[in-house]
Design a protein that fits this description.
Shape: globular
Number of domains: 1
Helix content: 10-25%
Number of helices: 1
Order of helices and strands: HEEE
Strand order of the largest sheet: 1-2-3
Structural class: alpha+beta
Low-confidence stretches: none
Strand content: 15-25%
Number of strands: 3
Mean pLDDT: 77
Radius of gyration: 13 Å
Distance between the termini: 28 Å
Length: 68
């Protein structure tokens, strides 16, 4: 299963989950471009500033800062 298939599965299996792929078009930071974010919003009423990703899929290894 590739990343796109996983994202489709999550979006269609779990009600209230939105999938956002970070890009320059949607204002994401460059380091996050092409990462997938899964946002739980069952009532579809969250404004962008209040969205919290419940999970994300990173496409590359980011060095640890030692804090997490």
């Amino acid at each position: 299963m590739d990343e796109a298939a996983i994202a489709r599965y999550i979006a269609t299996t779990f009600e209230g989950v939105d999938v956002v792929v970070a890009s320059s078009e949607n204002g994401a930071l460059e380091i996050a471009w092409s990462d997938s974010f899964f946002i739980y919003d069952p009532d579809r009423n969250l404004v962008e500033a209040n969205e919290i990703a419940v999970q994300r899929v990173e496409r590359r290894k980011i060095p640890s800062d030692g804090r997490s």
